[in-house]
Amino acid sequence: MKTTADVIVVGAGIIGNAIAYYTAKKGHSVIVLEKSAIIGDGGSSRNGGGVRQSGRDARELPLAMYGIENLWPSLSDELGYDVEYVKKGNLRLGKTPEHLKILEGLAKVGQSCGLDMRMIDGKEVRAINPYMSDEVVGASWCPTDGHANPLKATLAFYMKARELGVQYYTETGVTGLKKKAGKLKIVETDKGIFEGDTVILACGIGARPIASQIGIDVPMKPVLIEALVTEQEPEMFPQMLGTAEADFYGHQTAHGSFVFGGSSGLEDVNGDNGTPVTHSITAPCICRGIIKYMPRLANAKIVRTWAGWMDHVVDGVPVIDRVDEVPGLILACGFSGHGFGIAPSVGMTVSELVDGPDTTIDISGLTYDRFKAKA
Q1: Exposed end of the chain (fewer CB within 10 Å): N or C?
Q2: Residues 152, 153, 156, 161: what is their CA dihedral angle, to the nearest 10 degrees?
Q3: What is the CATH number of domain 87-143+221-313?
């Protein structure tokens, strides 16, 4: 059992696996610790698969734009596994004047960052996607957005990281962090002690209690997200879909099934006792919303549903940073439900942070110190 490496990554979701891959690719030895018995058991396997730039905060938009331009197009070839990446655009739909105001605001943010994104009316929406309801009066349209398969992408990063010598330890929960000679180096687990020159917390909502042991607190909380997949349907459209209020989002897969995620506002009533589960109230509520946008799916049969925790940060964007207060610690958490699409960029960026503060992509708005009290 190898217990020492240059880099210790905590968390084996798509973010942790991408970090492990890009870091190992640069020649570093890497160990990944995962408390679950399953790789990608969190949000990485419980999301709508969006690879989008539209609708993002300007602070994380550089990660999305860089990834879609430079990483996603060749990712299947690079990793040697088809991640089912499709680049056919993103329609974010609106049915009311209030929705259109929200969408116009999002479009302005994207345009200010150089993104090809514009508002279109209901007629143009249906020209792009004829299955949309007449209730849709407009949308934001980003032709360079797309989607991919979360399960396959997570698996692809994992398998390639293993090929590069990354060691994985599942069912290994982190119980403590300790410094050595003033630098964070020791990771205590329920299976023993691991040691590395750099420790990266990429374990979603689990990062908060772990980091708190060394005086670091990322202000995030768990938010339940539910998702569903339908049986195979005839090919209808290749675009990624979303709505102004983000009450549902999803796409049609290469197989023909539809994968949709969403929220109903009723998640807090679920008697789940801390376990992420779907509920008889919320899933039908999400489906009723979907049908109003796409009547054609009214009779589609649901094959399965699932739920997972989103690590929602108070300001809605992740923390990706070398932490000055704790030398040796890097945070890559708080992705607030939209980490999948930027995972390759995050993996590349964090691998650069291992070697120093300079990164190819601007992440200056995602630092940990943004939560400090201002003088």
Answers
A1: C
A2: -150
A3: 3.30.9.10
